[in-house]
Prior knowledge:
This protein is mainly β and 654 residues long. Among the domains are: 31-113, Nuclear Transport Factor 2, Chain: A (Roll), CATH 3.10.450; 280-303 and 313-423 and 455-652, Beta-galactosidase, Chain A, domain 5 (Distorted Sandwich), CATH 2.70.98.20. It has a 21-stranded antiparallel β-sheet that branches. Strand 21 and strand 22 form a beta hairpin. The protein is globular. It starts with a helix and ends in a 15-residue tail after the last strand. Mean pLDDT is 91; it is low at 1-26. Bound molecules: copper (II) ion.
Amino acid sequence: MTLFARRLFAVALYFVSLPAISFAQSRVPHHPLAALTAQEYWTVQDVLRDAGKLDEDTRVPGILLHEPPKERVLAWKAGDPLFRVADVILLRKGLTLQAQIDLVARKLLSWKERPDVYAPISGEEIESVGDAAKKDPRVIEALKKRGYNDLTFVRCEALPFGYLITPEFEGRRILNAECFDIHRSYITWHRAIADLQIQVDAADGKVVRVIDGDVVPMADGSITYEESIEPAQSDEHPIEIQQSKGPGFAVKDGEVSWQNWRFRFRIDPRIGPVVNLVRLQDGERTRSVMYEGSMSELFVPYMDPSIGWSTRSFIDSGEFFPTGLISALRQGVDCPSNAVYFDAVFSDSFGLPTIHSRRACLFELSNGQASWRHFERGEVWGRVDRVLVLRSSIVAGNYDYLIDWRFEPGGSIRLAVGATGIIETRRTKDKLSADSSMDGDHYGHFVDDQVFGVNHDHFFSFRLDLDVDGTKNSFMADRLEKRELPNSPARKSIWVMRPFMAHTEKDAMMDIRLDRPSMWRIINPSAKGRLGYPTGYELMPGTNAASLLDPEDGPQKVGAFSAHQLWITPYVPDEMYASGMFPTTGKGNDGLAVWTRANRPIENTDIVAWYTMGFHHVPRAEDWPVMPTMWHDLLIRPFDFYPSNPLMPSASSH
Length: 654
Ligand SMILES: [Cu+2]
């Protein structure tokens, strides 16, 4: 996660020629959960200016929709007055300020100095603090020692520490700068000047400490794939998607309808696509499935004890969203030819609205697989699958993530994350692994001469506020257990399912264990289906990982949601982000692990599921120079929600 600034300048602030298929961002909010509009960002500016809160030292790294309470949203009807509030994060000479603004009444609701937390970083700060670091005599000396007498092509950039690395930095906005040799290399992620960490106080741009280790020569090794950006093999025999009757979905007043699905979404500057009011049309009934779902945080700790790496841990969404994490999508690479695109309005370092094109796409897809089939008496019966995909891309510096919400006709939602982009690498003296002095414990894997891909994790927390047939739900973690059959002559053992209802948050902290399997369901105890079972939705994990770090380790305290694969909390409007509102340089005093210490009741009440999706990443040769996309997913599927297979119309006439 470095070199943000370069990408920032590549982002067009104003989009010129939208293709005809793009849906225009609405100018006026038409729903309490709609994204903030350009005019609302301006209202924030006007209210702050009128209150005398803006001056030349003040930056506005974050303006976010403050979600209205659920009961007000559920009671709201088109035409009713809107209620709109913005959460505003400001930064003034290293001090974080927090405001809340009523956008309808154009009023400052609250204003707080927050010396106890750290604002997220903006592209402007990354660059300005990096430039300040480069001017420090100790840094100039350290660079000279490495042969850099001319610093024209040395660029320094400063990033926050993902956790409070030492108590002496408490209350100070200390950033971590590193310098890159950018000469003659289009991609420079692998060209950081090794063994040199510069700790800078962002309040005054003064360097507080330079940790200067070994001189590690910078090898050549320009990454040049940009000169052949379209590999020939992709279009030798094109596969074309045609929808002669147009898309099978409709978007009206911000609501998407496709087959039996109805939902809304907004593109949030911090967490990307936020899907809400997800419902299923079931005959005459419109049934609630999920009030809201989104990614809520992203945690990437590195696993190398060397200088500049032992402290490397990112809490990407919360720390970096003002740098513009939600990236543009490219037709033919990210989304197929039948996709429809959506633009987004975010704000810049000063809080001014900026329009960003193609931040989400929506398309139908058939994988050409049977959604069900059966062979009987010489004939095959069945149907082919079809999904509706809502896709966005989150680019955290070097890493690219595709985030998919895939709606299936049978009532399932597959939530998928594709990780691609460029791995983080450390320069080494050793040319290749054969020369490496590493013995026993490996901190990574060589991917090129003197380029060492460092081991790390990726953990995503998804906040899933399922409301199955209403807001009052419970969580079941049904256990599959072995039973001995001592009296059976033919059989020694079977397994049985033992229903387990979670009463409190601690009951519902779930770890995936193959030797102690459990099935996770959100049920509505008051809504019974035809067979007498409560209606429900199951959460079915795909390949996953749990954090191996010590719970008291600094990075783990901030990314503590990675300790379990599932958490259930009661719905609390302010609990939106798994590591809290302000995870930057955090101590782990906010977020899921802290809230759940109260062990609140979660039975037959409004509950929220938090699913952690993750993987350990030992880089391999094939991950260089750009990693092939690797997908992980979660299936959210109906369980006794329907009386029978909803894909078979004749079967629903019971
Ligand atoms: Cu990785």
